[in-house]
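S1.2 Input.
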Amino acid sequence: MMILLISSSVTLTFVCLSLLAYDLHTTLQSMTEQLTGLAEVLGAHVAGPLIFNEVKTSEEILATLRTQRRIRGACLLRADGDLVAGYIRDSEKMPFQFPKPEWEGARFEGDSLRFYRTIKFRGDKVGSLYLESDTSQLRERLVTYLGILGGLFLLSGVITLALSSRLQKLISGPILDLLSVIRKVSRDKNYSLRATIHERDEIGLLVDGFNSMLVQIQRQDEELRIATERAILANRTKSMFLANVSHELRTPLNAIIGYGELLQEEIERMRPEEMMGDLDRITQAGRHLLGLINDVLDLSKIEAGKMKLHVEAFDPVSLIREVGSSLVPLFGIRNNELTLKIEPDLGVMRSDSTKFRQILINLISNANKFTENGLVVIEARRERSQGRDWIYCEVRDTGIGIRPEQLAQLFQPFTQADSAAARSRQGTGLGLAITRSFCQMMGGTVEAEGRPRRGSIFRVRLPAEIEPPQDESRLAMASSPTPEVLSKVG
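S1.3 Output.
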């Protein structure tokens, strides 16, 4: 109803203002034309008296302007500007001064319309005629229009209220009912609700279409719910299965690796060089397969909710050095250099050391995998933020880098940022996904940054203590602030 009232008022205002502007323009144009015609008539009659300096005749001619009630005053001037004759309609009530001629034609100034006309005889200027008319006619028309506009506004408001009260039941009522149902469906996600159809008109068709849409959404929602439950059940079953076969997969594989190492030691004493390479490849293949199985099983445990944290106090400096030393042989294969930069005040870390070690191994191995003849740097520091201590580890490399569009899928399971490059470097694409899951379990985060051919940076942020601090002795730190070079090949 309010919209109808506002729209009708705006439309009416626009129409009235347009008519008012047009009428004022027409009135001004008519006044100008009347003044121009009057000046032409007077100019034709005063040319002779002006030439012969007949002042009395000129005054009598100007006195005929008394019949024009809107003419305030007039004057007749010689060519040199001297006054010959003048006329003032009411000199006692309104003081009047005869101005000098300044332009040709009509001009509005204040509440007056002023008009100058040059009087010529045989092409020569013999004088000027000045006329001044008031614009009270414009004010009168403006007041009249404002009165009409107010009356129309009042009349339109009454008519609009009468119509809107009648249309409220026919239009607004069904629409408000439909809006109420829409809000309930949006709030409660209950697609079984239906809007009531009042009439079989356009609004009734709209309500019927909305109800049909709810039927389809309800059907699809039910199908989606069933499919989701089945998918969750299947995924849970898969995760439980993989988590339960951990022992069955690892045990025979460890036996293969163990017996391969024993055979390798025995044959090494016998020194048949041609068999050592084959046994070494068997052992390496077994270890690689064990690593892949461990990644899959770890991810399955995480998805199944069976991955637990084993919190203990440990020295993060010693653990980082141990991980770096254990990976030195891998860096020699790709001719890379591993450098540690550890601040001396890391203190004691109360967390899951096994998962912290696995995070470092995954990130360092990943950096070495995609770097050749380059440098991998590990930095570690301790900072206090948000009321608690945090351990920051940063792994930087000078390898092939990461494209911006690859960052979004970098930590997704079974996904490798650069599949073409990853095929030549092996891997399942689970290492970074497991790293992110471990960081989240430990209350931290992991972020990546990189550019193509500019290397990459992985930043890990973990709380120094997962549980509230307890009275435990701090481990002595023996690290030096100067960087350590663990592997330097070439």
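S1.4 Remarks. The chain has eleven helices and 13 strands.
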